[in-house]
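Ticket opened by: R.M.
Priority: normal
Category: complex prediction / small molecule

The reporter submitted a protein together with fe (iii) ion and asked that the result be attached to this ticket for the collaborator who will pick it up next week. Submitted input follows.
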Amino acid sequence: MEEAVYKVIEIVGSSKTSVEDAVQNAINKTGKTVRNIRWFEVAGTRGYIEDGRIAYWQVHVKIGFHVDQQMQEENRKETGSENKSNLDEPVKYRCLVCGYVYDPSKGDPTAGIKEGTSFEDLPDDWRCPECGVGKDQFERM
Ligand code: FE
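Result attached by the on-call engineer:
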């Protein structure tokens, strides 16, 4: 099972009409530079008053976005549109201890792992062919 990892940024949105509008403004602004926004949390609300009336709302918003997808978007930008299909290819994993790279397109012949086997599908007792550590010592590339 893949566990989602989110990065959180904080931003203050403002609106003359409503709190909801202030949140939406904050999300719109953030969406111009950050992709894969998944949720928001209102951390604080305040308003400014002019002549006895609400002049505008300011909402302090925490915005969460999915880190892995963000990285994929950045990879897509770096590799260019002609390589878009690379996103569909299985992901490589690197051993944190020795640097060995598990490449799903090659598998691991030393352990009888067929080519095309994704890292996730490796048996739980699979070990790094170079240094012998377990799957938990690997990072996604
Ligand atoms: Fe290793």
